[in-house]
Structures are given as C-alpha cells and as structure tokens.
Design a protein that fits this description.
By secondary structure, the protein is mainly α. The protein folds into two domains: 349 residues, no CATH class; 53 residues. Helices cover 68% and strands 0% of the residues. The longest helix is centred in the N-terminal third of the chain and has 25 residues.
C-alpha cells in the first residue's frame, strides 16, 4: 500500500522533521502551541494548537519515522468510514445503504494528498466533526455533553470545525425538531466561538488582508468555477494533484455563476427534505475553505472531503435498495479504490508529487520547491532549467536569483 511506505513529504519538513517545537516536551513548547501560529514562519494565519500536541506525542513515542504517522492516518480514515455509517443510521438510512456510503467515502481518491502527509489535518478534522456531530444528535444528555467537549477539541485542531453548530442547527431543522430542548446545546457551542476567537486573535495576527472587494470578486467571478471543478472531481476523481490553482474567470463567468446558482436553487426548491439537507450541508461545510482559497490561490482537492459527507448520506437514503444499485456502488467503489491507489503511487514522494503537479499546472512555488529539492540532492543540472525560467519570469525576486546563482556556481565547480 503506497501510503504506508511514503516518506515525510509536503508540509512534513516544516511541521515535523525541521520543527524544534515538536521534538521535545517542555512548558515553553506547549505554551507556544497555544500562543503561536501553526506554521513556524507565521504564514497562513492558522491556529491549530492541538495538532502540535498530536505531532509531539507521535514523535515522542515513535521518533522521526514516517510509517507510524501514515498508519495512524489509515486507521483514522477507517474510523471515519465507521462514523459516517453510524451517522447515516441515525439519520434513517438503511443498514446496507449506510455501509455502501461509508465504503465509498473511505476509498474516495480526493483524500490522497492527506493520506500521504504525516502532518495531515483534514482526516483528523473529519474524524472530530463526525464524532462530535453524532454525539450531539444523541438523545442522551451525557453524549451531547461529550459532543460539546469533542467540538472544543476540534476547534483547536482545525478552524473548519467552526461550522459544526450551523450544521447541527440545520440538521435538526430538517429533522422536524422544533422544541427548545433540541437546540439549547447550541448555547455552549456558540459561546466557544468567542473563546476561540479571542485565543486565535492573541496567537495569530490578522495578516490575511481579505477585503469586501476581494470577497465580492471571488464569489461572483471565481467561486462558480471552483464549484464546477469540485463537482467534476467528486464524480470522476482523476487526475488529482496537490495544488490546483484557481482559474481566472473567462468571458463566460456570468453564465457559469448563473448556471451554478440555478442548479442550487432548483435543488432547494424542488428537492425533497433529504436533497435540501444535502445542499445546505455542502454550502455550510464549504464556507471555511473560501478564505483559504482566496489567500493561497489554490483549490486543494482534499478540501472537498468534509463537504462530501452530506451528499454521500443523501444518496444512500435516496437510492433504491436493490441488487442493481448494490452492483453499481460496488463497481464505483472498486474504481475509486484503484484510482486512489494509483494516485498515491504516482505522488508517493516530494519529487514525484511536485513533478506530477507540473504535468497539469506550473505554480511558481512548485517549480521553486522542486528546484530546491534537486539542489539539495546535488542534481544541479536538473535544477538549472527550472531556476532559469523562474529568474526570467520574476527578475526582481531575490530568492530565485540567489538560488540560480548558487546553482550556476555548483555547476561550474562540478565541471
């Protein structure tokens, strides 16, 4: 299985192997977990202290070996399948259909990037989301209280858990729950928004710089293209790569937007309760990804992972329960499983992943990362064309110029 033999890759060097914060336990390091940004250089404006506690725990037990991290990823992904199955049952999905939806969810290839990263975030975030959501929907008071505690931990794991109260309220509404007892659990959930906001503001300065004009342009011109892209890879997840760039809006962007709004409006208007619930799940769970897209200029495949929970459960509830549907789900599951295996095989190291990305797009930072990796391995002749192209395109970027000059010196000395 490719995931179990993958090395540390993607963001793993920044977060694990080259990050002294996770190398040992100390009061200073734990304090930094809660008072410093996620990335050591402060980029991204992310606040995820629980992830550092997890990474430090793994390093303390297993050292700097990638295999245990990948095994935990695999086991967490299996647990996500079981939790989706349990959630589907609680929402009235028949056993066989719930099993099929869970199996398809587990093997969907969009999670390949996260499975290959020891420092994954979305696999753990979906685990916490599903666990907290299932507990909050329970009729037992003690289970709902545990659900609140899991939700608080989830906020400290990844910011996407902020939408869980909205997902809970929306689900209770579509279930026909109208009493105060069904919604009072929202009070502590929403209160923790404030606590989280204060802690995040102290730890992470607001350096994102996303203004109303940026939101207006993104939502009207770019977001429809993102929606169609995610629809395509959710149905036919190939080819996938780690950093698909946001596409510039073409001349047809108004029609793309109108078409997407029309489809959503039609589903909300004509769809039954299950369809409307799934559409609202997609819209709400996608909200936290929009600032990340605007900030980074990419639409990463695994950001779709939590979004697919609603559609998978809805399809399981709506599809007829007969042998033909079972055979179809089995065939789709096998196809997705093969695609997931192949995707992880062709992207199973930093160099493979970077070269795979460059087959489809030419993000500047990917070319630079690949050139730096090749220089580190003394493969100067392979790095030179990449750096030459970057210097030609960005003559005023000092990091590109310095790397190119270094590569030229290395090439000259080796001759």
């Amino acid at each position: 299985m490719p995931v179990l033999i993958a090395p540390f890759m993607n963001d793993d060097p920044f977060l694990i192997t080259q990050n002294p914060r996770v190398q040992s336990w100390s009061l200073a390091h734990v304090t930094e977990d809660f008072t410093q940004p996620y990335y050591p250089d402060g980029s991204g404006a992310y606040y995820r202290p629980l992830q550092f506690i997890y990474l430090r725990s793994m390093v303390s037990v297993f050292g700097l070996l990638p295999e245990p991290f990948h095994l935990v990823n695999l086991l967490t992904q299996a647990a996500n399948g079981w939790l989706l199955y349990a959630l589907a049952l609680s929402l009235g999905v028949p056993v066989g259909a719930a099993l099929g939806a869970a199996a398809l969810f587990v093997v969907h290839p969009i999670i390949a990037h996260e499975m290959l990263s020891a420092s994954q975030t979305d696999i753990g975030a979906v685990f916490i989301l599903l666990l907290a959501f299932r507990l909050l929907l329970s009729e037992r008071v003690w289970a709902r209280r545990i659900g609140v505690a899991v939700y608080v931990l989830g906020l400290l794991w990844k910011e996407s858990l902020l939408v869980l109260p909205l997902l809970y309220a929306m689900t209770q509404y579509f279930r026909g729950r109208k009493t105060w007892a069904d919604y009072q659990i929202l009070i502590p959930l929403i209160l923790f928004w404030g606590v989280y906001g204060v802690a995040r503001t102290i730890a992470v300065p607001d350096t994102i710089g996303l203004h109303l004009e940026s939101w207006h342009r993104f939502v009207l011109r770019i977001l429809p293209g993102v929606g169609w892209h995610y629809l395509q890879i959710s149905l036919w997840p190939w080819p996938l790569h780690s950093w698909p760039p946001l596409r510039a809006p073409g001349a047809w962007w108004p029609w793309n937007g109108l078409a997407l709004v029309g489809v959503i409006g039609l589903l909300l208007w004509k769809g039954n309760t299950t369809v409307r619930w799934a559409v609202c799940w997609v819209l709400l769970s996608a909200l936290p990804k929009i600032p990340a897209m605007m900030l980074n200029g990419v639409m990463m495949d695994h950001w779709l992972y939590a979004v697919l929970i609603g559609p998978f459960i809805a399809l399981a509830r709506l599809l007829p329960q007969n042998r033909g549907v079972l055979v179809l789900m089995l065939g789709v599951g096998l196809a997705w499983g093969v695609l997931a295996h192949e995707n992880m095989a062709v992207r199973g190291s930093d160099e493979k992943n970077l070269r795979w990305t460059l087959r489809f797009d030419q993000p500047t930072f990917v070319e630079y990362r690949l050139a730096a990796l090749l220089l580190k391995e003394s493969r100067t002749q392979e790095a030179l064309p990449l750096l030459q192209g970057l210097v030609h395109e960005f003559p005023n970027e000092p990091s590109f110029a310095n790397a190119y000059a270094f590569a030229q010196r290395q090439a000259t000395s080796s001759d």
